[in-house]
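User: Predict structure, ligand pyridoxal-5'-phosphate.
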Amino acid sequence: MEPFQPQVLSQDEIRAMLTQVTEEEFAEAKTHSLVNLKRQILYEGQPGGAVVTDTAGNQYIDCTSQAWSLNIGYCHPDVMATVLEQMRHLTHVRYGYATIPRIKLLNRLPRLFPGELTKVVLNNQGGASGIEGAMKLAMINKPGATVFLTAYRGYHGCTLGTLAASHYMRGLQRFSGYGLDHFHKFPYPHCYRCPIGRELRTCGLACLELVEEVMLYGATAPIAGLIIEPMQGAGGQVPTPPGYLAGLKELCQRHGIFLIYDESQTAFGRCGAMSAAEYYGVAPDMMVLTKGLGGGFPVGALLARGDLKGFSAAEEHTTFSSSPVSFAAALAAIEVTLRLDLPGRARKLNERATARLRHMQEEHPLIGDVRGPGMFIGVELVEDQQTKVPSTERATALVELAAMLGVIFDVDMPEVIAGRPTFRNTIKIKPPLTITEEQLDQALDVFEQVLQQVEQFGPDELASVREQMMKEAAPR
Ligand SMILES: Cc1ncc(COP(=O)(O)O)c(C=O)c1O
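Assistant: Predicted complex:
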């Protein structure tokens, strides 16, 4: 018997279930959905590429890689072939069981990153699960320590624990109280908006002193770990400056605090290296991975120093966190990333995009800053180059208009303070690393075209964009 010959359903039924949908069905689904749905119904990705088509036949160049995850593009043929092969054998096992993909992934991951990160725990939930795993591991290895340091405007997930670890968003006040007392925040080294008003050339990384102050005086209980994105993603595409992580590591070592990198976004070629740890040449005690790892399938991982004590059976497991299918996808995605030298490709694409964007910056005062390595680019829009007032409404409009012209961009983390949207003014340019030069140029053409449009907006248009934004941000 051919594998995958349906026994109960007909092949036609299956095809119809997955390829046909009416406007009425979509409208009804929106009434059921507890979360907002975007207006397009995405349907088909270009195999291994950056283009996605919706059910109306519109094509988009995706500069978001679907939450910065499709580093090797949509439905990469090698991942699809690997997954199909795995599906002939097993799709789900209980957490404690070894499977061949799990064994190979456990052995593969430690070889990809610097330092002594030889212990691994895998999951199929993603970044938040990895971060919570890291927190538990830090507490196991430093008994009695229950506090973590995290950065302003950091983002580590949407579970109650990781929301508390993330930048405190007033828009999420409904959950406040859950775990907030376990996190103490320190200013992130956002050099374009330096928290202490210094210049990178001369500051001597003085902001590290603020971190040490929090370590010394800011915590109400012993500190287990410091969790940081080596390059902030949601917080505005902000790489830490050279030397910062080395300084942070020295501080953590001196104070007996585990240094935990959240590399959910930065790894697997995204930043022009296999990891930000490699990019900066500074290895942490623990590293959280997800997104690009699974090649489009849900996989997360926590890597930890080899000398650390691991979990007991009950401490780290979920029903679906041992998917042989997803682990197989990850194995294939890793090989594709390495054999196509996608980190190198991301560096080359960065040169191309950054040169063009810097040129645009000279002509458009709306562009305050262009930053980020690899395909981890942020373009910060400001109302005024001197005051750097965030150009939130223009950025939102730019994303909307670009989508109408067939390019998907996104902005940094939403935050509404006192009834006013703040920030959300950094346009993220993070397409699959397999995007062609032509597609990247096309995306930047659209970027420039809509930039010119939103530059012309007057107060009325800005007010109406803001009104729409507030409606979408409002609690359901
Ligand atoms: C840096 C970072 N950490 C953690 C997460 C959370 O990952 P997940 O949504 O897979 O739980 C994200 C998600 O965007 C992220 O960008």
